[in-house]
Amino acid sequence: MRTSPLFQGRFDAWVKAIADFGPLLIASPIDHVALDRHRLEYQRIMALNPLPEGVTVSHVDMGGIPGHLVAPQNGDSGRVILYFHGGGYVAGGPLGHQAIAGHYAKLLGARVYIPDYRLAPEHPYPAPIDDAFASYRWLLNEGIDARSIAFSGDSAGGAMVVTVMVWARNAGLPLPAGGVAISPWANLEHTGASMATREGLDPQATVAGLNVLARAVLNGALPGDPDVSPVFADVRGLSPILVQIGENEVMLSDAVRLAEHLGNNRIRTSLEIWPGMFHVWHLFAADLDEGMEAMRNAAAFLHAQMPRD
What we know:
By secondary structure, this protein is α/β, with parallel strands linked by helices. About 40% of the residues lie in helices and about 15% in strands.
């Protein structure tokens, strides 16, 4: 992995911003003003990853769910990506994920919608998933053909790629053409072997940090609830899904387990394990060759599932 001082500075700021959430989330009582202030700072730091040229960004109301629309300036293919941002269900938002959305927009000629779903601990499970599902229902109500829609997301949003498909199937809605789960946080029980064998390799995601996030979002729900841990979900009948995971991630084993679970239930599944990569390395696609290559692979997978130009 070749890096630059510019990349390293952004990465170090991101890692520190994530770590700074811990004291805010374990405080009793929680200082919600300070938490909101740090959420804004976290998104500002993530937004330092440059938006690709040739795309536009606008605000959009997705049936009561605020969001951002990232669209190509030229060559709209009619495809739509619904992108679920990561952040452990407690942080993140459209601003910090515009770079990934912008790469999808350019690579696929697609309009990319990023719903700004509610966050824990103020709005614990199932509120974030409720909002993500409502954003998909809104796209369908707007008359967009489900075959022209694909899901993608990272970390908690990677898990929601699967969960929102399950909710859509259970509600009798047409399913999207496919999905890409990037570094999915797929098992909040944290029982995968890599939780021990990869601990310390990726400073961005640690077992202790994940446990803090899990407590914040679960609010008493069981960590094995299939809606937050899709390794336990009934995934029969879902659309094709690509799982991408970094080999250095503590989530590695559970991402592999998710892909195996999908495949065992006859879902067309692709799994990419990227040696040496950290959690959601795609965010740095502008500076990191592996990030851009992973974005191209994700776009190619979705292109194969969706209607051609």
